[in-house]
From TrEMBL, chain A:
One of its GO terms (cellular component) is mitochondrial inner membrane. Keywords: Mitochondrion, Ribonucleoprotein, Ribosomal protein, Transit peptide. It is found in: Mitochondrion. This is Large ribosomal subunit protein uL10m. The keyword Ribosomal protein applies. It comes from Mesitornis unicolor (brown roatelo). It comes from the Eukaryota. Belongs to the universal ribosomal protein uL10 family. Its main location: mitochondrion.
UniProtKB/TrEMBL annotation, chain B:
It is found in: Mitochondrion. This is Large ribosomal subunit protein mL53. The keyword Ribonucleoprotein applies. The keyword Lipoprotein does not apply.
Length: 250, 110
């Protein structure tokens, strides 16, 4: 070997710099640079770029996720058990306000439920609430209740600008926001029942007076006639046959 | 690709924003997401006086965003064919331009 024979290379290129590992950036030796350039990693390029190929659909997500099934069952229960379900858009609000709103609604027996669109959409598409599907985009909450206290709910929501009422399903009837406001303005069930009964009872109460109207008019005319006759007796007796004929013709 | 939640908008030159949409229509997604984004804490914190109102209709009208600026200018964006990111960047660029103008005016005057 050359080194053992006492031969040293003419230029000790390595010894010019102080150390191999420095704190500042040190340029690589030129031979090393060439080596690195030659052995650089080139990723394999497919013959046809992937964006020119028709989009491939991955295997459909398995719905056997137990948590998703549980959430779906909960949503189905909610739709079955509650008479009033209101859908609102939820824009982020501070936690204290959210707690207050939940508290006020709970006083009126209205529960606040946060829902995920990806869970509620398949449930709705298979049930009879298909028309509620377009509502479920962006973040939503459901306000559910066994009673239909629309007026109180609207009052609470008016004080919360970050929750916007989109629509509701009350007693299996889908209503828009305007529909909910009209529903809130309606009188209560007892009051409207009383009004209907009163309206229906009005006509029969008038039947007896209607039937008695004709004969009552006739008796009034005859009374008047008798008075006139008596007044006429004291005056002229020849006025008798003419009124007698007119009453006979009637 | 920009995420709609990452875009920052400074609402100082804005007086009020009115968002009108019809939730039973199918072209309202971007408008609703826009409403959600401008209601976030960070953007609301830039201007507490800015009122954001949502007008929910059921008359089949197209989704609309009506922005009133403090200097009287109005910006109307029809969201039926716009994406959320486009609407946010448009609003953001106009707000930035107005703020720059105000800063320059403030520097010139005193």
């Amino acid at each position: 070997c050359l080194l053992s024979a006492g031969w040293l290379p003419a230029l000790h290129l390595v010894r010019h710099s102080s150390k191999a590992v420095t704190r500042h950036w040190k340029a690589m030796h030129f031979q090393r640079q060439k080596l690195m350039a030659v052995t650089e990693y080139l990723p394999p390029r497919p013959a046809v770029p992937p964006r020119c190929l028709p989009p491939r659909t991955d295997a459909p997500k398995e719905e056997d996720n137990g948590y998703a099934r549980l959430l779906r069952r909960q949503v189905e229960e909610v739709f079955r058990d509650n008479r009033m379900i209101a859908v609102c858009q939820y824009n982020s609000m501070p936690d204290e306000d959210l707690m207050l709103m939940r508290h006020y609604l709970r006083k009126h027996n209205i529960e606040v439920k946060f829902v995920l669109n990806e869970i509620i959409r398949p449930v709705l598409s298979q049930s009879k609430y298909k028309n509620l599907l377009p509502l479920f985009v962006a973040r939503n909450i459901l306000l559910v209740s066994q009673e239909t206290k629309a007026k109180e709910m609207l009052r609470v929501l008016k004080g919360v600008p970050q929750v916007n009422l989109l629509g509701a399903c009350i007693d299996n009837t889908i209503l828009s926001r305007q529909g909910v406001e009209n529903f809130a303005k309606l009188p209560s069930l007892e009051a409207s029942q009383g009004q209907t009964v009163g309206a229906l009872a009005l006509l029969p109460s008038q039947t007896s007076s209607l039937l008695q109207c004709g004969p009552a008019y006739l008796t009034a005319l005859l009374d008047e006639h008798i008075r006139q006759l008596r007044a006429g007796d004291t005056g002229t007796p020849t006025a008798e046959p003419a009124p007698a004929q007119s009453s006979g013709a009637q | 690709k920009k995420m709609a939640s990452k875009i920052r908008v400074g609402l100082r030159p804005v007086k009020s924003i009115m968002v009108r949409f019809c939730p039973f229509e199918s072209n309202v997604e971007s408008t609703r997401k826009f409403l959600q984004c401008i209601n976030r804490k960070k953007i609301q914190a830039t201007n507490r006086n800015c009122e954001v109102t949502a007008d929910v209709r059921h008359d089949g009208s197209e989704p609309l965003v009506h922005v009133m600026f403090a200097d009287g200018e109005r910006l109307i964006m029809k969201g039926a064919n716009l994406t959320t990111v486009e609407m946010l960047t448009a609003l953001g660029s106009r707000c930035n331009a107005k703020e720059l103008k105000e800063e320059q005016k403030g520097k010139k005057n005193p």
